[in-house]
Amino acid sequence: MKHAPPPPPDPAQLRALAVRLLLEDAAEHTATSGRVAAIAQAHGVTTRTVRRWIDNARANDGTYTPAGRPHFELTDHMLDVLARRLGNVAQAHLELTAEAKEDPTLPEVPSRAAFYRAVHRQLNRGQLAGLRGGETARRRFDVFGKRDRHHRNYAWETDHVEASVQVTIDGHIRKPWITWFVDCATDGICGLAVSPQTPSRESILVALRDALLTTAEHGPFGGRPQRVRVDGGKDFLCRTVGEAMDLLGTELIVLPPRRPDLKPTVEAINGAAKKTLFADMPGYTEAPTLPGGKPIDPDRELLHFDVFVALLLDWVRHWNTEHTIKDLGDKTPAQAWAADPTPIRTVAARDIHAFTLERAGRPLTITSKGVRWRSRDYFDPWMVGRAGEKVHLRYMPHHDHYVELYEPTTGQYLGSAVMANQAPPALRRELDRARRRQADELRTRQKKAEKSRKARYAAINKGPTRRLDAITHDQATQQLRDLGGADLNSQALPGFLPLPAPTDGWAVPRPRSSPTNDQPDHLDEESS
């Protein structure tokens, strides 16, 4: 197989090398006359030209810098106009040309081709994209470095991702959210949590508990990481998550918001799940649509939330144990994890509660009804014979149906307790239906009121406009009476009660009156 010949060397680089060697010889007081003539003959120039090259290098700190062709440079005002035109070079050129015609003192604007060349010479592709589409568009042209993988549990990354799939749960259509912790050294998914609503600190704590455990049902990935990288979301920065990281001895690294390049491992898994899992599910929200945005199959049957979770867990198992990654030497994350000799700092399952649950404050007392918290009673058979004892209560956010109880002085785990007198599922569903009916009635009433409030006007092309919802005087009076706006006195001070008459002995103000000639002189003197 014949290989293509290498490209010829750049003449400018050869000149720069020759001039640099001549300067080194001159610094060592070595005769250079013969070499100047040889270099001039090799490059097909005169010795005077070579000496001009040497003078150019001495004027530029020893580096030969050939002078380029003169070209047009954009001024600050031209760059401002280009930014105001959102990177539209043609519109910016037209505006600058019109300004130059109106004001002869402004600098002359070159041809459109020369202006285009100047723009692309002074602004790179990322800067132009930023003018047209903002910071997000500019970052597509950035070059990001690649972090070292280090060893397992050296660093984890965590993130929330909204699944691009619609699922059903209790008759509602939702888009699930996934929270997962990923090991940066092996790309293994250590733990995750799935919720049918916007995630909160509850999802983080559930996923963290799953990631820390290394028992059989949780897989080989886990242990205490040295550091965890999170974005600036308030749920990741809450007190409970911070206390859990402090107790685990894990450094919490808070990254600036909207910087996916700083947590590339978890972002790569987000993209992989979208392309290889969500895209194959019914109800994929980014599937091709018909004109007008209508789905191709409007009668498609959506997955139930539980089915979605089962498919997601199966995909995670495939990713961890069967999917090979080129950067890992064509190994799976599980193989890379097993080949890493770094010791794993494990956490016992009984201690996980203290790390991933919120504490309810002061100790509570066990009564004959159990433990009273938030106007609810929690009990369990292990409380028999412990009435009067103090306990510390810990709970998972948004999980009000059970709590965990601990001995307040030693922190020993005592057991869990469930809510007493919980409403059965049928009653809860009836309550949800009643709430939805009430919300629908209110929404219908608000739409009707908004429709009657808005005035509609006739379309015109000249002359004054007129309203289309004209009504008679009698109709307006009747509607005003129905709305209670006819008699404002009927609404003023509805709870007013008249004051009682003053009793004997009260000092009451005398009514003000003008003096008359019949008044005695002493009254005039007193009044004056």
Key words describing this protein structure:
528 residues; alpha+beta; six-stranded antiparallel beta barrel; 38% helix; disordered C terminus
Walkthrough of the structure:
- The protein has 528 residues and is of the alpha+beta class.
- It is built from 17 helices and 15 strands.
- The strands form three sheets. A six-stranded antiparallel β-barrel has the order 10-11-12-15-14-13.
- Strand 2 and strand 3 form a beta hairpin.
- Helix 1 runs antiparallel to helix 2 and helix 4 crosses helix 5.
- It is extended, with a radius of gyration of 40 Å.
Summarize the SSE layout with pairings.
Elements: H1 11-27, H2 33-43, H3 47-59, H4 76-84, H5 89-102, H6 112-122, H7 125-133, H8 135-139, E1 156-162, E2 167-169, E3 172-174, E4 177-183, E5 189-195, H9 201-212, E6 227-230, H10 239-248, E7 251-254, H11 264-276, E8 303-304, H12 305-321, H13 333-339, H14 352-356, E9 358-359, E10 364-367, E11 370-373, E12 376-379, E13 390-395, E14 402-406, E15 413-419, H15 425-453, H16 473-482, H17 521-527
Parallel strand pairs: 1-6, 2-8, 6-7
Antiparallel strand pairs: 1-4, 2-3, 4-5, 9-13, 10-11, 10-13, 11-12, 12-15, 13-14, 14-15
Helix pairs in contact: 1-2, 1-3, 2-3, 4-5
